[in-house]
Amino acid sequence: MLVNVPKLVSAYYTEKPDPSVPTQRVAFGTSGHRGSAFEKAFNEWHILAISQAICLYRKQKKIDGPLFLGIDTHALSVPAFASALEVLAANGVETMISQEDEYTPTPAVSHAILTYNRGRKSGLADGIVITPSHNPPHDGGFKYNPPNGGPAESAVTAWIEAKANEFLENGIWGVKRISYEKALRASTTHRHDYLAAYISDLGSVIDMDVIRDAKINMGVDPLGGAGVRYWGPIAERYGLNLTVVSETVDPTFRFMTVDWDGQIRMDPSSTYAMQRLIGMKDRFDL
């Protein structure tokens, strides 16, 4: 049942979607497009088309500040990141990518957008989060966050979706793109320390002293997700009695117990998917 990661990444680059087939078109759900490269629902053309559509949307709305770009640990996130950066750099978008290519949880991208935009009326920032959330390992996801930092509303996603599908229908003619190597070296591509910025600001919204002084014994399972490297530094900075029970990152997510339908799915609301952590509940207060 484990996803064949080399085959999946190969399908991302080699399979071309047919826009006349509804399931192969760009389709935004909650702020983003999700799908599997095996089903021609999340392939290179999708990401090139959506990225170019976002560039046009930014231009139309005069959003000309930096774009904060983050990824999660799904196998298709790294290829999608490369495709997106090629388009963003070719369009001259100031793009903020993570320090040392670290994974970036969605709240850290939202925090970066809001922090940058605080007190500004123009030159606003927005963001892209490359994640299908807790979808199965063979899925990829690509979400747009406007300057309010949250998920894009339906009017925004409908515009981006329609424009992206136009690009697909035209064989991605009109998509600007440079090589990944050039995109990484572009003067518009910058490194941003999402982890340090997010963790240092947590104390301004959460009373960490109360949690620390209570000495409550906490256990955290990041489920192999984008927050995997955040919990340790949070505990260290604020002196919390917190144990990260697993720091494993594996794009097959083979360490998960299967969900109710036999799928591997990293859903923290599912008692099936959370069996491993539930089995440790007596070791911790929380």
Explained architecture:
The chain is of the alpha/beta class and 286 residues long. The chain has 2 domains: 5-197, Alpha-D-Glucose-1,6-Bisphosphate, Chain A, domain 3, CATH 3.40.120; 206-283, Alpha-D-Glucose-1,6-Bisphosphate, Chain A, domain 3, CATH 3.40.120.10. It has helices at residues 5-14, 44-60, 77-90, 106-117, 154-169, 180-185, 194-202, 208-214, 231-238, 275-278, and strands spanning 32-36, 67-71, 95-98, 126-130, 139-145, 189-192, 218-220, 242-244. The chain has a 6-stranded mixed sheet, with helices on both faces. Helix 2 crosses helix 3 (77-90). It is globular, with a radius of gyration of 19 Å. The model has no long low-confidence stretch (mean pLDDT 96).
Brief digest:
By secondary structure, this protein is of the alpha/beta class.
Protein topology:
Layout: H1 5-14, E1 32-36, H2 44-60, E2 67-71, H3 77-90, E3 95-98, H4 106-117, E4 126-130, E5 139-145, H5 154-169, H6 180-185, E6 189-192, H7 194-202, H8 208-214, E7 218-220, H9 231-238, E8 242-244, H10 275-278
Parallel strand pairs: 2-3, 2-4, 3-6, 7-8
Antiparallel strand pairs: 1-5, 4-5
Helix pairs in contact: 2-3, 2-5, 4-7
Strand order of the largest sheet: 1-5-4-2-3-6
How many beta-strand runs? Answer: 8
The CATH class of the largest domain: Alpha Beta
* Overall geometry: globular
Note poorly predicted spans: none
How many structural units, i.e. domains? 2
